Amino acid sequence: MENVAVLIVGAGPAGLATVACLTHLSIPYVIVEREDCNASLWRNRAYDRLKLHLAKEFCELPHMSYPADAPTYIPKALFVKYLDDYTARFNIEPKYLTCVESSTYDSYKKCWSIVARDMAEGTTINFIAKFLVVASGENSAENIPVIPGLDTFPGEAIHSSSYKSGKIFAGKSVLVIGSGNSGMEIAYDLATHGANTSIVIRSPIHIMTKELIRLGMTLAHHLPLNLVDNFLVMAAKFIFGDLSRYGITMPKMGPMILKSKTGRSAVIDVGTAGLIKKGIIQVQGSISKITGSIVKFQSGDEISFDAAVFATGYKSTANMWLKNGESMLNDNGLPRKEYPNHWKDENRLYCVGLARRGLAGISADAKNIANDIKSVIGSMLG
Predict the structure, then answer these.
(1) What is the distance between the alpha carbons of residues 321 and 132, in angstroms, rounded to a whole number?
(2) Is the pTM of this model over 0.85?
(3) pLDDT one-digit tens code per residue, 196-208
(4) Taxonomically, which superkingdom (predicted)?
């Protein structure tokens, strides 16, 4: 039995940021991680050409800036190095290969009872914690939608977390399912490596340049979001033209308001829009069913594919182990309360990085949580 003040579950950017903020306030903690390294999503499940989509000033974790010579848009390898340097700076030593199996709140003793498994030893570890922080992320498990006949598809069907490069798909016909930032960038990568590429775009999306989003986020500090959105939409139409003829429509809500209300991000174009306009990447609508290698779309089109990449995102797995957390998280393992009041629940339960606000949201959550824990400890001692 280990008695700890704060137990943090997850050693991705959210968990590391929380530790840094607690360390800054001299609050003791234990951090556990089911993988054998920190930031496993970035280290092991991100494609090679990935860069952070937002400028570096919006992507720093608390109490440590990027090196002065870092590029404006941080590539994957440099971000992983930043996280390693961050871990070293704050002397963070997660208990790796430690998988939380259950956590329940004891209202009589006013503490959390957590059962974890040491995956290397095959033994059980019991923690008693005064504070529990869910930092296991919204991206802890792959999300692959149910499509009739998918099990009959003979080609390679992978989640985007397993995708590294388009090199191995050269000359093949590949369908990308999902049109967020990952899907659009993977489609571009496939096409530039010589794959015959199609992408499923089911719902309206905003396509922006990284410079437009950087400008929008800066203007949002000084102007109403609807004014910023009007400018961004006009600028995007000027840059990309009318994309509706290619199967891409804009949401009714502007990109900044859409992000603030739903957490859905605009797509940062890396060249995909140009390849779609040239006909090099084909846009398809919803899939109705799959029969062998033939994919039938709701438009009636039937096309044969050699491979499929599911850029359909991730889901939180916190609900699988967190008991007595129903008032904080919904059935999808995401916060019930709206941003910015989502990070705290009763019984000294917190969540960080689940509000779909990126690294800036993680930083805000981590600071709020550490400050709140500090004040609760102060009142307990007082």
Answers:
(1) 12
(2) no
(3) 999 999 999 999 9
(4) Eukaryota
